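Discussion board: Methods & Data

I've been asked by a reviewer to show the raw model output for two of the constructs in my manuscript, not just the figures. I'm not sure how much to include, so I'm pasting the format here to get opinions. Each protein appears as its amino acid sequence followed by a line of discrete structure tokens. Is this the kind of thing reviewers expect to see in a supplement, or should I convert it first? Here is construct A:
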Amino acid sequence: MENTRRLVDIMARLRNPDGGCPWDLEQTFESLAPYTLEEAYEVIDAVERSDFEDLRDELGDLLLQVVFHSRLAEEQQLFDFETVARAIGDKLVRRHPHVFEGMQFEDDRERLRYWESAKVDERRQKSSEAAAASVLDGVAASLPALMQAQKLQQRAARHGFDWPEAAAVFAKLDEEVDELRSACVELDARKIREEIGDLLFVVVNLARHLDVDAETALNASNQKFDRRFRYIEAQLAARESSLSESTLEVLDALWEQAKREGL
């Protein structure tokens, strides 16, 4: 673990008021939060591109965020990097008794029930009022909305609050579309926003029932749109034309051409 110790020592030196880095010295938990989120997404991007050299570097950047937050906590006598590592190690051992304690599970379903039960117990221990703890506790409010929706639904579903099959979700989807249409006819901006939110929430539920990660699926569609739109721009540039000079029919034809090209 020589390199891990070296990284922790480097961070301590950067945060040293006597000769440290001015930028690093200015940082707080709050100021680092956006960087932490950004680095996590860059890890995901490297994975999706199967760029493993980049993945190594991005994992290092993400690790730096862990070390940085841990250093700030150590300076405030809250915890340190060693405590963080010990806590996650203890959690892994606690949640995998079939690996570390010889416990036997009949199937994956029983194993997942134990996993969820262990997480509920951990959340209750953190709560000052155990009776008030919710199964939804621990779903971070700062998560991207699609990811948060999926996690909330997963938590509820594990406790029986769920449609039995995807067909019922399709029916709910139709219902939400109709309610959105009605809100649009009424020109009620507040209601339109609410109904769009409900519609998106049901789409996430449908994705979950179809074993699709909603966040990943939308990200893939974003990238597909980006590729096809850039193709349209390139084709127009080759014709010495531009988006503003083109009709919707021309743009739509180029979009279909991009699809035929496999973009």
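Construct B, same format:
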Amino acid sequence: MSGHSKWANIKHKKEKTDAQRGKIFTKIGREIAVAVKEGGGSDPEVNSRLKDIIAKAKANNMPNDNILRSIKKAAGEAGSVSYENILYEGYGPNGVAIIVEALTDNRNRTASEMRYIFDRNGGSLGASGCVSWMFDRKGVIVIENNGEVEEDALMMEAIEAGAEDVSDNAEAYEIYTDPVNFSAVRDALEKSGYSFASAGIEMVPQNTVQLKEEQAEKVMNLIDMMEDNDDIQNVYHNMEVV
């Protein structure tokens, strides 16, 4: 995980958050709908998948009223709209590997839009498995280093709860877990009073492609265009800006 900074991605997203907050909440609402339908109901204490999505919603400052409304709506419309989880893989400019997680009710529409976005931005949509072997699925918890967090205490609590690694990049602490242990680590840190900048199961690159800022700009244009798409939930990459 050396060289990969989740915090850098979060800072970039924060610059767009105010204008796109409504879209972010809509996407999380879609994830809640799928979690309720496929994960085992509307009780987060029973449905661990829903519990993880709620943690993600809170990390994105989604109001509790919105979360509860989304859960009730999902429980009442369990048989209406059916969303499909699809993973797209490909390459962006300068050989950057990209994985896109989508939730769609129209596979053909989303595939066409993904191909268009890759092509327009100098990338290429690849076959399933073409880049996923370069990534590991990990639980990732990010806590902003605001000067009030005691590093040694955080590391001890995280490791005792089951975390694999804790890194400090001066601006934030990034905690990595096996997906199986993610909920336990997140719950333990939440009970200890830590606030999360983000928390979720993600695709973490094993190695990174180092790009200068002007090279990285082309990749970020591609990622921004993807994140503006209503069907796209998450975009992962192995780019590191140097």
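Answer (T.O., handling editor elsewhere):
This is acceptable in a supplement if you add a one-line summary per construct. For B, something like: The longest helix spans residues 6-39.
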